[in-house]
Amino acid sequence: MAEGERGRLIVLAGPTAVGKGTVAAWVREHHPEIWMSVSATTRPARPGEVDGRHYHFVSPEEFDRLIAEDGLLEYATVHGVNRYGTPRAAVEEKLEQGESVLLEIDLQGARQVRERFPEAFLVFLAPPSWDELVNRLVGRGTETEAERERRLATAREELAAVSEFDATIVNTEVEEAGRELVDLFRSRPPADPAG
Ligand code: 5GP
Asked: Where along the chain is ATP bound (predicted)?
């Protein structure tokens, strides 16, 4: 790679329950050359999650401080409860070093990245069909009718965001979707620091 060449910033986003996390985990496991940002979150760790690896688990006060210091490249409240954000310094450092960087974030975050990094490449992970997404969202049948309606309304809005993205990958099968994402990384020219 030529000296001074910046790395590529790719964002993987998509509707709730489409399987972004699973596709990102496949990429992490099979393509260690792609650097995945570790987000900060105010959500408590789930069993098996490791601080600094899956997330940086922080208090609401620490999250506020990160925002105040302009330490987050983007941040959002997801599902109306917990806050999640991408630490800025590590991403910028990796891009400077010419490494490819992948962010797996929600739609609100993807829109912020678009504004701040016009050269970022935004990939929308789509469900195989609307029916499939509905199944994944309401399949468990444990939600009330009102809750189901709310989730479906959110999903409809989220699906409409597809036109804001540079590419779409249909998540029919995890490995296939992961490979497509990596191919996109490889086929994209590196980001132009001039924008
Ligand atoms: P979970 O709590 O299940 O790990 O993640 C919930 C949601 O938060 C997922 O949709 C994931 O994409 C999103 N998310 C994770 N990290 C970030 C981040 O740094 N920024 C934003 N905007 N969303 C994130």
From this structure: 14-21
Q: Enter the tokens of residue 18.
A: 């489409």
Q: Which of 78, 82, 101, 103 to mutate to test the pocket of ligand 1 (most atoms within 8 A of CB)?
A: 78
Q: Which residues are annotated as a binding site for ATP?
A: 14-21
pLDDT confidence of residue 142: 67
Distance CA 185, CA 149 (A): 36
Supply the DSSP symbol for 13.
Answer: E
Is the predicted pLDDT of residue 187 greater than 60, yes or no? yes
Contacts of 22 (CB under 8 A, 6+ apart): 174
For ligand 1, say whether the CB of 20 is within 6 Å of any of its atoms.
yes
Domains in the chain with CATH codes: 9-187 (3.40.50.300)
104 CB within 6 A, ligand 1: yes
Q: What is the pLDDT of residues 121-162, one digit of tens each?
A: 999 999 988 888 888 777 666 678 887 788 788 888 888 999
Q: Helices 20-30 and 174-187, interaxial angle, to 10°?
A: 70
Q: Whole-angstrom Cα distance, residue 100 to residue 194?
A: 17
Instruction: Supply the pTM of this predicted model.
Output: 0.90
